[in-house]
Amino acid sequence: MIELPALGWQSIVIFIVFALSLLIATYCTYAERVIAAFLQDRVGPDRAGPYGLAQPLADAVKMFTKEEFFPGGANKALFVFGPCLAMITALMSSAVIPFGNIMNFGNNLFFLQGIEVNIGMLWVFGVVSLGVYGVMIGGWASNNKFSLLGAIRAASQNISYELAMGMALIAVLMISGTLSLRDITLQQSVAGEWHVWNIVKQPLGFIIFLVCAFAETNRTPFDLPECETELVGGYHTEYSSMKLGLYLFSEYVNIFVVSAVMSVLYFGGFNFPFQYELRDWFVSNQGWELASAQNLITLLGTVGLFLKIFAFIFFFMWIRWTLPRFRYDQLMRLGWTILIPLAIFNIVLTGGLILAGVI
Amino acid sequence: MQLTNRAKKLEKKPMTLAERAYLPAIFQGLSITMRHFFMKKATVRYPEEVRPFSNTFRGLHVLKRDEQGRERCTACGLCAVACPAEAITMVAGERKKGEEGLYREEKYAISYEINMLRCIFCGLCEEACPKAAIYLQPDKMAPPRYERDEFIYGKDRLVEPVSPDERSVRGIQLTADQATTLRTRLA
């Protein structure tokens, strides 16, 4: 059991974590457009700032200056609350993600993590599942039956894929025996042993988790909540200006969070191969103190984690501009009749392997 | 009812396991898009980077001067007659004493206007001109404007400027500041 440090210095870390998640999500909107352009042999946004890097700023200005529109007869309070809830839930789930190991200055310990709780994974799931309410409330408050239909579709999709996602996760929890994201990370590299990431032990579980992550974040090929062809536009048809911006932006925050969770659960989080050997080399050959060598390793690990996250974010966008959208019945069939049975099979398989002492 | 014998009977084969698994097709698609990620871009960054015009390109009109800087146009009206879109209008005038350095012959155009909204850039005016006065430049386009009356090009914008300072960029007459910067750059 790790003692929670006194709030104070740790709050700086919390601030940085939130600022980072927002910044990365902001630049995801830019990255999406650039990557889309590159995949389609175009150049992409390059007018605002050098290489178009001020594009998110320009988008924000546009969103803020657009007309605020409320549909007639809509419940205004709920109408505003919907996108706020989507954003809040997306941001809250980033609180427990460990972005790095512990930094040690003198006797002050810094957790490179918003909050360290031993129910981290449960927290992420609980908060992410609340995101459905943002969609539902948005569709309901629009006072538009097509938006409501879109919201219902989105909600049923999110719920059905959350089940399979949770079941894929259970196999990881069986291996690690803990819900704390930090402990799950640390168990993927034990000093003096082989550095084995969970992806090696859980290939099937990872694929299920990945597919469900796409559906959870409403990304292509599962972006049915917002489609112009089958619905008029989806649950946010009636939304305009920054309220729509919040919905779209929360999608990118979700992508960031899900990428981080996947990196932590399956790709070793802030661990990288030979980290303990590197630390010992600094201590024994360079004469560093153990604490400062550990700090260096922690920083390198944080950089490594962000590289993993960026790779996942790129993968999300790569998929989006490659695959066409699923049909709704295909989506539902994949979720209920393929992924959930596969996940259950994975749980049984993992249990058997643990009993047999293989993993 | 069978109309021809050419109809092919299509057979829908059951999908193989790899096709049903869907994943190989996904990876194939991903590899295709990834290849395009590194390909040469088909677009150019337009205002900075301009594609070369074709050899037969006909752009914005210019009224030429002769070697001594006199206007070649004698307002004979053949270009206006040749113009299928009826975009050219002109008023002829008589050269006065002391204006020999300005106009080459006794008759000249007091006003000469081309309506760029009507012009179809066919180049027939250029072919009709007996004095080699009007040309369609091969490297300049009529620039976009916001107001309709700005597309009526008068002599101020059509006649070739006397000094290189007053050269125009994309058909727009340079301001004094722009001319200064251009002169410093050319020097």
TrEMBL record, chain A:
Main location: membrane
Topological type in the membrane: Multi-pass membrane protein
Pfam families linked: NADHdh
Keywords attached to this entry: Cell membrane, Membrane, NAD, Oxidoreductase, Quinone, Translocase, Transmembrane, Transmembrane helix, Ubiquinone
Transmembrane segments: 6-30, 78-100, 120-142, 163-182, 194-215, 252-276, 296-319, 331-356
Annotated Gene Ontology cellular component terms: plasma membrane
Reaction equations catalysed: a quinone + NADH + 5 H(+)(in) = a quinol + NAD(+) + 4 H(+)(out)
Subcellular location: Cell membrane; Membrane
Superkingdom: Bacteria
Assigned EC number: 7.1.1.-
GO biological process, one term: aerobic respiration
GO MF term (any one): NADH dehydrogenase activity
PANTHER family, sorted: NADH DEHYDROGENASE SUBUNIT 1 (PTHR11432), NADH-UBIQUINONE OXIDOREDUCTASE CHAIN 1 (PTHR11432:SF3)
Entry-linked HAMAP family: NDH1_NuoH
Oligomer status and interactors: NDH-1 is composed of 14 different subunits. Subunits NuoA, H, J, K, L, M, N constitute the membrane sector of the complex.
Family: Belongs to the complex I subunit 1 family.
Role of this protein: NDH-1 shuttles electrons from NADH, via FMN and iron-sulfur (Fe-S) centers, to quinones in the respiratory chain. The immediate electron acceptor for the enzyme in this species is believed to be ubiquinone. Couples the redox reaction to proton translocation (for every two electrons transferred, four hydrogen ions are translocated across the cytoplasmic membrane), and thus conserves the redox energy in a proton gradient. This subunit may bind ubiquinone.
Protein name: NADH-quinone oxidoreductase subunit H
Gene this protein is translated from: nuoH
Automatic annotation (TrEMBL), chain B:
NCBIfam families hit by this protein: NuoI (TIGR01971)
A Gene Ontology term for the protein's cellular component: plasma membrane
TM annotation in the entry: none
Key words, A-Z: 4Fe-4S, Cell membrane, Iron, Iron-sulfur, Membrane, Metal-binding, NAD, Quinone, Repeat, Translocase, Ubiquinone
Residues engaged in binding [4Fe-4S] cluster 1: 73, 76, 79, 129
Topology with respect to the bilayer: Peripheral membrane protein
Cofactor(s) the protein needs: [4Fe-4S] cluster
EC number, as in UniProt: 7.1.1.-
Protein name, UniProt field: NADH-quinone oxidoreductase subunit I
Origin organism lineage: Bacteria, Pseudomonadati, Bacteroidota, Cytophagia, Cytophagales
Sequence similarity: Belongs to the complex I 23 kDa subunit family.
Cofactor: how and how many bound: Binds 2 [4Fe-4S] clusters per subunit.
Localization (cell): Cell membrane
Residues in 4Fe-4S ferredoxin-type domain copies: 64-93, 110-139
Naturally occurring in which organism (per UniProt): Hymenobacter sediminicola
Assembly with partners or alone: NDH-1 is composed of 14 different subunits. Subunits NuoA, H, J, K, L, M, N constitute the membrane sector of the complex.
Positions of [4Fe-4S] cluster 2 binding: 83, 119, 122, 125
Role description: NDH-1 shuttles electrons from NADH, via FMN and iron-sulfur (Fe-S) centers, to quinones in the respiratory chain. The immediate electron acceptor for the enzyme in this species is believed to be ubiquinone. Couples the redox reaction to proton translocation (for every two electrons transferred, four hydrogen ions are translocated across the cytoplasmic membrane), and thus conserves the redox energy in a proton gradient.
